[in-house]
Amino acid sequence: MVLNNKIRRTMLENKSLYFGSFALIVISCLLYTMLNLLLVNLEGTKASFESKYVQEDASFVTDKKLTRIPELEAQFNVSLEEGGSFDYAPGQGNTLRIFAKTRKVNRYAVIEGSRLSGGDLLLDPAYAKANHIQIGDSLSVGGKAFKVSGSMSLPNYIYPLQSDGDIVNDPAHFGIAVMSRSDFDLLHKGGSFYSVKVRGNTEAADRGSVQSVLAAFREEVRKQNVLIVRWTSTEDNLRVTFVNAKIASMKQMSSSLPVAILLLTCILTGIVLWRMLRREFVIVGTLYALGYRRSEIVRHYLKYPFAIAVAGGVAGTLLGALAFRPMLAFMLTYFNMPLDTASFLGGHLAISVLLPVVFLGISGYFVIRKALRRSPVELMRGGGEERRIGFLERRVKLDGLKFTTKFKIRDQLRSIPRSVFLLLGVALATMLLLLGFTMKSSIDFLLKQSFDQAYKYKYQYMYRALQQGKPAQGEAFSELLFTLKSDAKQGITVFGVSPSTRYLSFKDMKGNPLSMNQVVVTKALADKLHLKDKDTIEVIGKLDSKPYTFVIDSIADTHVGAYLYMPLSLLNEKVGFPADSYFGLWSEAPIRIPDSQLLSTTTTDEIKQALDSMLKPLQASMGTIAFLSFLIGLIVIYVVTSLIIEENKDNIALMKVLGYRNKEMYALILGGSSWMVVAGYVLGVPLLRLSLGALYQSATSSMNLTLPVTMDYRYVIIGFVIIYLTYELSKLLNKKKLARIPMTEALKSRAE
């Protein structure tokens, strides 16, 4: 159709407006493609790794060795294997946890290098990289030299955390290694544990039957007069579940952010298309008179949004596919898993291209249909209607205001879609910009206020067996695991502590000090389970599968640890342990305890180092997020400013005829949107709080903490300065366009 020859010419005449839509679509499709390909490959890699290398269903520690392993395996149809580990300190503040090679459960996967052959060991790649250890280097362990033959991953340590209570890993200070069983036994270090895998458990739907098998298995172990000191199901193992939490949060981001940008693009394209149609009403009426059918005219004008959508969709999808591989490589260093192959799923690539076509096609169709409701005669007369005064413009009383103020307000009220587009665009840019700042503020609050104020000990020691009597050093406590009676997937950690403990300092929700001679839950646990004072929790013991009931006396205002605290003597009485028994010690100074007696050792400095290490990649990504928000903000504000100039072309020309100086015209035309920019920023702040609250809740659902949404006022001010500077930059870029409008435009419009 000859009519289509004008499409390219029209787009080039208004290239800034169409380029804005194109750029937003590219960003949206890039994010959609990259994030969805990343999610599919992460989920596939995790499932393949866990199945191929036999991830445990649970691990446990006993007070004595099991003697009937083959009989237990046959009776319950499980794979049961004894493992061994010990912590080795290559340097000050550096811990390497060394595991003995296993054959049946939690087999290691070689990522780089060669398999174990004796006299060597394999390291996790993140630890090796952080500590500058190369393949072929030698490490001295227990007075013996071991060659580093490569890097590996363990299916029960996908996210290598030093202790169960840790939140983030710190590869510079903690890592894992594997050596052969014969080399491990020769060192005579550490202790043993057991890993159990229910055979045939390949689907998530089997988890209920798996739990019933494991419950019967635990009961049989107790019948053999063996005490299970610690039991950790895979669902409670943060070293595994953290990956699921991360994937869940990425799923929310992969759908919501691209769609939000696309909706913004639909508004922009609708505004541009409606403006073009209004300007071409006479042309459309003439086309009707020449015999063109309505369907032909609709198809012609739909080619504008379709051209932008296809070009932007293809470009964004290609860029997303290119960015996917390096992003996947980064995530697999974050989560220690081997990658077999990276798959590019055609379905996601096709959806990425089609989404903008569908979104812009639908919005464009409705705009065009609205314009073509008029008769050919009305269209040839320029639309058949004079400019109407809108409802808001009639309602707002501007009497008594200066001319410049009235002009700016009326200009915004006369183009509500344009103002809404600017408002939402600035709000989205604000949310992206403050995202990194707010996450940093939240972690700072968690680390400095919640953690430092509540926990006063420096060292935590957990024994492999139940201890009795008053300890010579430190303060005794116990840590036992339970699950909710109503939801077996929800684990609860219960601490028995001294009523006069020196190492816990909690305050209630009103800021008053809390006595520990009562049952206290942290706010993290209260938020997860929606608990109040005097509520009752019914739980099942992980070690004995017996039911217990706890009545909540108070809630401690701390977000670190979804824990329940009670007097140690009361806990011992409930579970049937001796009154003076305990499993752990807290202290301010190191205590010399033989490694063979210890299950784990944790220091608060290690926890803080891990949190600090988590902030480093966040701080690095803040620059990228800030640039993306700056880019979206600049595109939105620049396009809106261009629209304002186009719509006020006649007024600008008339102002020049009347002798207005350039500075006065800049203030009137380009400065009228400043209050909408401020309103968009103000709107973006509460929207970010709401969205981050949902994101944090999803991300920490499997973690022993809750992350409060905390905004530092300094970052809010910095964010506003950046957004407003972006607005000023867009005005600066449009000044030349305003200056190029000739005075003859005023005469042309009056002649027409």
Automatic annotation (TrEMBL):
<dbReference type="InterPro" id="IPR038766">
    <property type="entry name" value="Membrane_comp_ABC_pdt"/>
</dbReference>
<feature type="transmembrane region" description="Helical">
    <location>
        <begin position="420"/>
        <end position="439"/>
    </location>
</feature>
<feature type="transmembrane region" description="Helical">
    <location>
        <begin position="713"/>
        <end position="730"/>
    </location>
</feature>
<dbReference type="InterPro" id="IPR003838">
    <property type="entry name" value="ABC3_permease_C"/>
</dbReference>
<feature type="transmembrane region" description="Helical">
    <location>
        <begin position="16"/>
        <end position="39"/>
    </location>
</feature>
<feature type="transmembrane region" description="Helical">
    <location>
        <begin position="344"/>
        <end position="368"/>
    </location>
</feature>
<feature type="transmembrane region" description="Helical">
    <location>
        <begin position="666"/>
        <end position="688"/>
    </location>
</feature>
<dbReference type="Pfam" id="PF02687">
    <property type="entry name" value="FtsX"/>
</dbReference>
<feature type="domain" description="ABC3 transporter permease C-terminal">
    <location>
        <begin position="257"/>
        <end position="376"/>
    </location>
</feature>
<feature type="transmembrane region" description="Helical">
    <location>
        <begin position="625"/>
        <end position="645"/>
    </location>
</feature>
<feature type="transmembrane region" description="Helical">
    <location>
        <begin position="257"/>
        <end position="277"/>
    </location>
</feature>
<keyword id="KW-1133">Transmembrane helix</keyword>
<keyword id="KW-0472">Membrane</keyword>
<protein>
    <submittedName>
        <fullName>FtsX-like permease family protein</fullName>
    </submittedName>
</protein>
<keyword id="KW-0812">Transmembrane</keyword>
<dbReference type="GO" id="GO:0005886">
    <property type="term" value="C:plasma membrane"/>
</dbReference>
<feature type="transmembrane region" description="Helical">
    <location>
        <begin position="301"/>
        <end position="324"/>
    </location>
</feature>
<feature type="domain" description="ABC3 transporter permease C-terminal">
    <location>
        <begin position="624"/>
        <end position="737"/>
    </location>
</feature>
<keyword id="KW-1003">Cell membrane</keyword>
